[in-house]
Amino acid sequence: MEKKISPSVLSADFSRLGEEIRALEAAGADYIHLDVMDGQFVPNITIGPLVVEAARRVTTLPLDVHLMIENADRYIDAFADAGSSLVSVHPEACPHLQRTLQAIRGRGALAAAALNPATPLCVLDHVLDDLDMILIMTVNPGFGGQKFIPAMLDKLRRLKALLASAGKNIPVEVDGGIVVDNIRTVSDAGADVFVSGSGILCTPDYAATITGMRKRLAA
Ligand code: DX5
Ligand code: ZN
């Protein structure tokens, strides 16, 4: 599967969000990752559909929208209408996960489930047909700039084995603590799509960093 890079604008300068997104597109990003936090499911509060809609106007890249919110069902329509290409929801916040994933697809977006580090893979057992992507959190969600949790490598290997035995070719995304120096190890464990916030946006040259990541992935 082709490896993709999805910079998270959580570490962007929000006073210049449009420019930052354009710079990431010019730097070779495959997606733009937008982190939606409600101060309930996670301790932090970030953006809502209005900002997704604004992002939609400044790039043609797919918008990878990560909902870290309680009651995700209530907001699927709003985020789909705002122009999300892919919507990730946390099973921990969706009591009727299959219905939620169907609702996302029903609004024309791709559907993903995002699993916290301590959430077991078995939550996916009965929804594999409803998933366009699986997001494995490699930090506890809520903040940028945290350290990658090494135990997630084994989780990724297990997920890959599970998908292979089920005959499913669903891309696996990782989110949290991904930097040039660990991207290859995480890729070898089974990740296909790499979210990176501070690992890209806290470096001086986004293009050089993304190119550096791609070199590590290809080497
Ligand atoms: C964490 C968010 C991430 C965050 C990643 O709660 O879901 O997308 O932006 O940031 P880094 O890459 O700095 O860990
Ligand atoms: Zn995220």
Task: Explain what this protein looks like in three dimensions.
The protein has an 8-stranded parallel β-sheet with strand order 1-8-7-6-5-4-3-2. It has one domain: Alpha-Beta Barrel (TIM Barrel). 36% of the residues lie in helices and 18% in strands. The longest helix has 15 residues. The chain is α/β, with parallel strands linked by helices and 219 residues long. Helix 4 links the parallel strand 4 and strand 5. The site of zinc ion has 6 residues, from strand 2.
CATH class: Alpha Beta
Q: How do the strands line up in the largest sheet?
A: 1-8-7-6-5-4-3-2
Total tally of structural domains: 1
Q: If classified by CATH, what would the architecture be?
A: Alpha-Beta Barrel
Bound molecules: D-xylitol-5-phosphate, zinc ion
How would the global form be characterised?
Answer: globular
CATH topology: TIM Barrel
Oligomer classification: single chain
Q: Cα distance, first to last residue? A: 15 Å
Number of strands: 8
Concise synopsis of the structure shown:
The protein has helices spanning 17-26, 49-58, 76-81, 97-106, 152-166, 180-189, 198-201, 206-218, and strands at 4-7, 32-37, 63-68, 86-89, 110-115, 133-137, 172-175, 193-196. By secondary structure, it is of the alpha/beta class. Helix 6 (180-189) packs parallel to helix 8 (206-218).
Record keyword descriptors for this entry.
8-stranded parallel β-sheet, binds zinc ion, TIM Barrel, single chain, alpha/beta, binds D-xylitol-5-phosphate
